[in-house]
Amino acid sequence: MSTPFMFEKPVGMRDTLPSYYVKEEKVKRQMEEEIKTWGYLPIRTPTLEYYETVGTASAILEKQLFKLLDQDGNTLVLRPDMTAPIARVAASSLKDQVFPIRLFYHDSLFRAQEREGGRPAEFNQMGVELVGDGTTSADGEVIALMIAALEKSGLKDFKVAVGHIGYVNALLQDVLGSEERVQTLRRYLYEKNYVGFRQHVKSLPLSSIDKNRLLGLLELRGGIETLEKAAELVQTEEAKKSIQELKELEEILAGYGVTEYIKIDFNLVMHMSYYTGIVFEGYGNRLGFPLSSGGRYDELLAKFHRPAQATGFGIRLDLLIEALDTKEEVRQDTCILFSKERRGEAIQTAKALRKEGKRVVLQDLQGVENVDELSESFSDVRYFIGKNGQEG
Amino acid sequence: MSDILTMAMPKGRIFEEAVELLRKAGFPLPPEFDDSRKLIVDVPEANMRFILAKPMDVPTYVEYGVADVGVAGKDTMIEEERDVYEVLDLKISACYLAVAGLPGCEKKGINPKVASKYPNLATKYFKEQGEQVEIIKLNGSIELAPLVGLADRIVDIVSTGRTLRENGLVELEKIVPITSRLIVNPVSYRMKDAQIDEMVEKLAAVVEEEKV
């Protein structure tokens, strides 16, 4: 290990300079305004959580957790996601509040990174959690709200893929029986390895009908007609229920007027093991990574001893801003340069201008390195210089 | 929305076979494509753009989304573990990964050393075998390592076994068969689903034909 240079920061950490900061603020504000009008309340949770509780419940890969020890030797983690902390709050500090609870947040999350650029170890996420509501209306609300927030941010050309973990499990379970065999195939799905999935299916001692049912899963993506195809593959109660939920969801989203954004995709199987029902992911056109995701997690709250159904989404602000190409300039309106003799006058002028909402830089001439360069960056420069000099 | 589909192609060994496959599938690749030194080749008739990359880098281009799809060997997929869809086995450039070494080298040493171009893959493989080895990463001509005493064994791809034989090495264990795969960026998979599904269909048909 070599000692870091003074300018270095830890791998994956980024500075937020003014030009980027204002963009992020703008996008954040636009989306937050939308989310508030849907009746969601703001919440903030600690940066540090116990590894044993939130750390393990979060389902983020072990190696992606930043860990440290407190004075008592407990392992702490820098929060890797917001869903688990909010589940903890809903089950403890808010345990007397009746369900459903609607909360939103924007905060930074931490994922230790072992790879190269484009994957910050700390990033801002904005999202909502709708806790204690098991209805499909809740799934619909959360998806529609995510779309509304993305629209408000100015994002165009985006799509939201919607899948159902319950259906995938029902199909695999019905064909394969044992959970062990289900797990193997599910892993191929979330590793996105369709070749491996097909090879594995071919190697199983199953009838060709059953094999084709499993292979059929890979074809289940597209429009609403996909639901019919899905219904043909498996008829268990669980599967019927899942398909019924998706049908209802389609109606709900039509009510919100957002079906143009939606694609059905039963192959959407997320790494996050806590998802149980409808899941979704948002994609922008100019970006290689999904910029938002969410879904139903009906078993997570039970881990914090207040069993409840819940759903929510998170939007990655860093990725969203990359996809957006937002134009928001850092703004300073007026520069008042003064010399000591007329400082009082300069302060009064600055006060008056600031009252009008102007962003005023008040600068003692003696402290300026290069007057020309400084004044060039302002459209309005005023001088209060010399004993009797005129303003101008 | 830009409808151009960008495809990352691996230069070298796999390239010719991949180009042949694409032509058979009806993609109008220009004749100069084969010996072009260009890194980016546009084929407007097909609404496609090809980028020519090192085979090991293809999954990276696709993961970051600068290419929508790509052709990558299973060896690079295992080594790189990129977050991309592996949608189709193209069944070209068939070979396999194997452990090799000088005759009798298995019993050697308490801290056995293994040289490979695939350090992640080799580490994982020996871990699964319950054997502790030390990995040395090399970038090519791996067969040299045991000959000059840099390592006891090597992990490398074998197609005919000729290189091994010519250097007096023997194959000790087969690890996994390798073919080239069509890989897809997760966002492109959803945003350009129609184009990609069409491509997969065409290629799958040719792959199926070849097999018979």
SSE layout:
The complex is a heterodimer of chains A (392) and B (212).
Chain A: H1 18-37, E1 41-42, E2 48-50, H2 51-57, E3 67-69, E4 75-78, H3 83-91, E5 101-110, E6 122-131, H4 136-152, E7 158-164, H5 165-176, H6 179-190, H7 194-203, H8 208-217, E8 221-222, H9 225-233, H10 237-256, E9 262-265, E10 278-284, E11 292-296, H11 300-303, E12 310-316, H12 317-324, E13 334-338, H13 343-355, E14 360-364, H14 371-376, E15 380-384
Parallel strand pairs in A: 1-5, 7-9, 13-14, 13-15
Antiparallel strand pairs in A: 2-4, 3-4, 5-6, 6-12, 7-10, 8-9, 10-11, 11-12
Helix pairs in contact in A: 1-4, 4-10, 5-6, 5-8, 5-10
Chain B: E1 5-10, H1 15-24, E2 40-43, E3 48-53, H2 58-63, E4 69-73, H3 74-80, E5 85-89, E6 95-101, E7 113-116, H4 119-128, E8 134-137, H5 144-148, E9 153-158, H6 162-166, E10 170-178, E11 180-184, H7 186-191, H8 193-211
User: Major sheet of chain B: size, sense and barrel closure?
Assistant: 6 strands, mixed
Rg calc of chain B: 19 Å
Main sheet attributes: strand count, strand direction, barrel closure of chain A: 9 strands, mixed
How many β-strand stretches of chain A?
15
- What structural category arises from helix and sheet content of chain A? alpha/beta
> Shape of chain B, please?
elongated
SS-based structural class of chain B? alpha/beta
Q: Which architecture of the largest domain in chain A per CATH?
A: 2-Layer Sandwich
Name the assembly state: heterodimer
What is the helix fraction of residues of chain B, given as a range?
25-40%
CATH fold naming of the largest domain in chain A: BirA Bifunctional Protein, domain 2
Low confidence ranges of chain B: none
- Average residue pLDDT of chain B: 91
Q: Spell the H/E element sequence of chain A.
A: HEEHEEHEEHEHHHHEHHEEEHEHEHEHE
Q: In CATH, what is the homologous superfamily of the largest domain in chain A?
A: Bira Bifunctional Protein, Domain 2
Write down the domain tally of chain A. Answer: 2
Distance between the termini of chain B: 39 Å
Mean pLDDT of chain A: 92
Q: Give the termini separation of chain A.
A: 58 Å
Fraction of residues in β-strands of chain A:
15-25%
